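Good morning,

Both structures are done.
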Amino acid sequence: MNSKREKLYLEIESKSENESLARVIVSAFAARLDPTLEEVSDIKTAVSEAVTNSVIHGYEGNEGIIKIECEIEKNILFVNISDEGVGIADVKQAMQPLFSTKKDEERSGMGFSFMEIFMDELNVESESGKGTKIMMKKIIGGK
């Protein structure tokens, strides 16, 4: 396996139809690590949740850019997804299961919980009015 770091940079418009594009591109990038089908599914789910959060909560349906940065180092996939949307006032509260600012739109409030379950590490940085950055790590081939 190549010990050199490999990187992917992608910018997509904050449209819900770009969520599937993002998850396919990230999983295709991760494929060079020869992940199991379960690991690919985990990655796709986490990326879908992060991008959907940016579209619905970050930009609140308005136009904006979502940045996706991926890096492979040895058997580890790092995925950072960021926006310059409205940000999260209380990250700790937002990461609680079932918490949603869009309950009237039938949102489950499980996005961060799913990211946490399907990835090996999750960190969220956000500032009101400046946007949010979600940093995830997945170890391919076991923990």
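Second structure follows.
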Amino acid sequence: MDRLDQMRLFIRVVETASFSKAGKAEGVVQSTVSKQVSALEAMFGVQLLRRTSRGMSVTESGLDFYKFAVGMLADLEAARIRIGQGQFRGRLRVTAFADLASRFIVPRLPEFLATYPEVSIDLDVSERLVSLSEDGYDVAIRGGDLTDATLIARQIGVIRAVAVASPSYLQRYGEPTSPHELKEHAVVGLISNGQQFSWPFDTPEGRLLLAPSARVRTNDAASIRVAVKAGLGICFGPSWLFEDELRSGDVIQILAEHSLATFPIHAIRPVGRRPSSKVTAFIDFVAELLANEPHLSMPLAAKRVRALA
């Protein structure tokens, strides 16, 4: 037990006038309280408490030390709060994938900035993979499985995938009844870093990974939606990307009876750098807003696992 803990115990003893009550308040046994007070007395070379068969009382030296200890711990707490608040200032550099940032994070930023008025944010909206340490980012919000085990990551949400097409396309070309029939259809492909995303389906036999050839490919979420609505083909993408179109009937979900895989959303921070309070606060903020979005919230089982981790 360090000196600060000894001081807290001593304060408890004086204020409760009891070794046993002080121990109960601090979660230690009575003998530990007595031992620690004796250690303080040995350090100072004076008696702090007067013990008799009828109870205990505080000596003059003990009262002086009590006042000093109360003041010192109060000053220490004030310093902790002041320094801690000081960490909620400065520029926070964030990188996030495009549509998640514009659709969910940016509209809610006023709340974060109102809570932390001395924090400012540089937001890099990009699908490119960056080196957080080399490029100077504090945190990255990324979707998909992690391939680098050295990254410090926290899962904060999931991407639920859907396969969709416009009514005009389905009327003209028919609706596929199994994932294997996709090779017979026109596809609108979503690409990142020049690579087209594969389409994973979870089946009773395991994960089925398809890479249908796409006549139209783009890395822009808005263009994906327009292309599908225009009848250019079937698209596989995040459910939230087509939320409004599914509700209006401009696009229709297909292959709904076949389970499409989900992908994690992670908040990633640089290795070897202790996160500042503003970084932790921002990650908590994004995690909370995703938890309130049905298309992005983690299943309850995953949340329980994270709570136990």
